[in-house]
Amino acid sequence: MATEDTTSVAEQPAPTPERRWRGLLANRDFMIVWGGFTVSSVGTALSNLAVPLLALGLSGSPTMAGLVGAARLAPYLLLNLLAGVFIDRWDRRRVMIVADLGRFAALATIPVAYAFDSLTIGHLAAVAFLEGVGHVFSAVSHLSALSKLVPEEQLASANALNEVADSAAGVGGSALSGALIGLARNSTLGAVYSYAVDAVTYLLSGASLLFVRKSFQEERTTDGSRSVLADLKEGMSFLWQQRLLRLLMVMVTLINFFQAPLNLATIVLATEDLDINAGLIGLILAAVGLGTVASAFAASWLRERISLRSMALGSVALWAVAAAMMAAAPSILLLTAGVLITNLLWPIFAVSLVTYRLSATPDHLQGRVNSAFRTMSFGVEPLGLALGGALIASQGPRTLFWAAAAGLFAVLVGSLFTWRGGLTPETPAPEVSEGR
C-alpha cells in the first residue's frame, strides 16, 4: 500500500525561477492579455510623438500643443479614483475591452477628419482626452486583474514581463512613429499616419481579450445601497492604514515629482550647454530604452535576492547620485551615465513595489487601491514638470539637477527614519470586510 504523503503545503519546496517562468509562459490567458498589452503599449508610444507634432502642425502654437498634451493627461487626475471604484464593481475584462474599442473609435476619427480637411485643434484635444480616459480604465483594470490571472508565486515574473513589454514598446513605438513621419511628405501627415496605426493597435488589443477564458476577479455581489463615496473611502482607508503601502505611496509621489522635469533638463543641457546634436541625443535615448528592456528582464531575478527595503532605498540613493552626476556633467559621457542609471532602475523598482502592492491588497479592493496609489504618484508629475520647467528657464538645467539631487536625498533620509523594524512586507494586512 502506498504511504500517504503528509507533507503540508507550507513544507513543499518553492518552485524554482525556471519553473515559474515556464508556468507563466504556458499560461494561455495571461499570454493573451500580455500580448494585447504589448500591442496597445506600442500604440501609446506612437501617440507620445504624434500628439505634439500634430498639435503643432494644426495650430503652430507651442501653447496649444501643451494644452492638447494636458488634455491627454487630465484623466489621470480627474478620473483615476472614480475609475478604481467602478473597476471593483464592474467586470474588469469588459472594462478593458470597452476602453480599447473606445480608443480605437476615437483615434480613427483623426485620419478621417484629416482626409476631409476638417481636423481642428479642438477635435484633437477631445480625442486626446478620450484616449486618456481609456488608458486610465484599461491600465487600472489590467493591474487589478493580474493577481487573478497568475498564481502569487508568478506575480513578480508577470510584472517583470509587463515592464519588458512596456520598455520594448516605448523603443519600438517611437522608432515606428519616427519612420512613419519620415516617410510622409510632412510631419503633420506623418503624425496622422501614426494615429491611424495607433487606432489599429487598440482594436487588436480589445479583440484579443475576447479569447480570454479566466475570470479577471473573484465572484462578488454588488450592494446597490452602497454609495460611490463609501466605496472610495473604503479603498483609501485600506491604503492609508497599511503603513508600508502608505510609505511607498509617499516615496513614489516625491520621486516622480523630482524626476518629472529631468528629461527636459537633459535635452536643454545637452543642446545648449554641451552643444550636442539633437540626433545624437535621440540615439542616446534609444540606447537607454534598450537598456531598460534588459533591466526589466532582470527585475524578477533581483527581487528574489534583494529585499523590498534595500531595493527601494538603494534606488533612491542611486537616483540622487545620478541627478548630481548630470548636474556636474562636463561632457555627454557623464550626462549619459546619469540618464542610464535613472532609467535602468525604474523597471527593477517597479516590479518589487507593484508585486508587493498586489499581494498585500484583497481582490475586491484592487481597483481602488491601485487607482488611489496611481492618482498620487502620477498626478504629481504635471506639477513637477511645470515647476521644473520654470526653474530651468530662470536658473538653468544644472540648477534643476542639483535641486532634484537634493530632493531625492531628502526622500532617502526621510524613508530611512520611517522604514524601521516592523515595517516589513511580511507584516500581514488587516482583515477588511468586503461590504458587499
Strand content: under 5%
CATH class of the largest domain: Mainly Alpha
> What is the SS-derived class?
mainly alpha
How many distinct folded domains? Answer: 2
**Range of helix content:** over 70%
Oligomer class: single chain
CATH superfamily of the largest domain: MFS general substrate transporter like domains
The chain-level mean pLDDT equals 81
Low-confidence parts: 1-13, 426-436
Form type: globular
Rg from Cα: 22 Å
Q: Strand-and-helix sequence, N→C?
A: HHHHHHHHHHHHHHHHH
Measured between the Cα atoms of the first and last residue, the distance is: 48 Å
Number of strands: 0
Give a short summary of the structure.
This protein is mostly helical and 436 residues long. Helices cover 78% and strands 0% of the residues. The chain contains 17 helices and no strands.
Explain what you see:
The protein has 436 residues and is an all-alpha fold. It has two domains: 24-215, Growth Hormone, Chain: A; 227-428, MFS general substrate transporter like domains (Growth Hormone, Chain: A). Helix content is 78%, strand content 0%. The protein is built from 17 helices and no strands. It has helices spanning 17-25, 28-59, 62-78, 80-89, 92-115, 121-149, 155-183, 187-208, 228-241, 243-259, 262-273, 278-303, 308-328, 332-360, 366-379, 381-395, 397-418. Helix 2 (28-59) runs parallel beside helix 7 (155-183). It is globular, with a radius of gyration of 22 Å. The relative contact order is 0.14. Mean pLDDT is 81; it is low at 1-13 and 426-436.
